[in-house]
Specification:
The complex is a heterodimer of chains A (about 120) and B (about 110).
Chain A lengths: L2 E5 L2 E3 L5 E8 L8 E6 L5 E7 L6 E3 L7 E6 L4 E6 L8 E8 L6 E4 L3 E5 L2
Parallel strand pairs in A: 2-11
Antiparallel strand pairs in A: 1-3, 3-8, 4-5, 4-9, 5-6, 7-8, 9-10, 9-11
Chain B lengths: L8 E4 L5 E6 L11 E6 L6 E4 L13 E6 L2 E6 L8 E8 L5 E3 L3 E5 L1
Parallel strand pairs in B: 1-9
Antiparallel strand pairs in B: 2-6, 3-4, 3-7, 5-6, 7-8, 7-9
Classes of the chains: A mainly beta (about 120), B mainly beta (about 110).
């Protein structure tokens, strides 16, 4: 059974950093592109960042470019998101998502980890 | 990177059909057959319902169908059921290799 479990969220002050992790099981993460998607409280989904299976292609939303860094460790079946210079508007539930084989949609999602940026 | 445009809400009675639209540009929806649709119930993670404009993943009811014309994609739910009440989001691959989501549509089953 495919499972994605995010961790690392919490309450952080503006300007500080946080590193999110996503542990994958039930499949070999190294065979798939992976993405992060966030959802602010009561709001819609916002795509954040994506990384190809071999880290050769990395893309970011304009809203996080230069502040967030996505990475992966295929040997540990894990995905990461380093978030620096956090702002109040980064407050959201952060989901990691697996890309469908050979495609561009997200077929499996974790339950999310909540990041709250507040002083 | 502006969000794709969806109606904020739609409603229908059990048994009826509804359609949710998703409008983008030639750089996303209109340029690629990589539109997907997600269903999200309150407190749950999104669930993939349609990918590549009109393909249904295994296990998704055939009451859900997708299509595209120009820069607008559509999700149609036929034979509406109470359990279909949820938020629905479209998403598209873009010319920058990024992704865009729509603002979401709240479906109410009357």
């Amino acid at each position: 059974e495919v499972q994605l479990v995010e961790s690392g969220g919490g309450l952080v002050q503006p300007g500080r950093s946080l590193r999110l992790s996503c542990a994958a099981s039930g499949f070999t993460i190294g065979d798939y592109a992976m993405h992060w998607v966030r959802q602010a409280p009561g709001k819609g989904l916002e795509w954040v960042s994506g990384i190809s299976w071999n880290s050769g292609v990395i893309v970011y939303a304009d809203s996080v470019k230069g502040r967030f860094t996505i990475s992966r460790d295929n040997a540990k079946n894990s995905l990461y998101l380093q978030m620096n210079s956090l702002r109040a508007e980064d407050t959201a539930l952060y989901y990691c998502a697996k890309v469908v084989r050979g495609g561009y949609a997200f077929d499996y999602w974790g339950q999310g980890t909540l990041v709250t940026v507040s002083s | 990177q502006s969000a794709l445009t969806q109606p904020a809400s739609v409603s229908g009675s059990p048994g009826q059909s509804i359609t949710i639209s998703c409008t983008g540009t030639s750089s996303d929806v209109g340029g690629y057959n990589y539109v997907s649709w997600y269903q999200q119930h309150p407190g749950e993670a999104p669930k993939l319902m349609i990918h590549d404009v009109s393909s249904r993943p295994s296990g998704v009811s055939n009451r859900f169908s997708g299509s595209k014309s120009g820069n607008t994609a559509s999700l149609t739910i036929s034979g509406l059921q109470a359990e279909d009440e949820a938020d629905y989001y479209c998403s598209s691959y873009t010319s920058s290799s990024t992704r865009l989501f729509g603002g979401g549509t709240k479906l109410t089953v009357l």
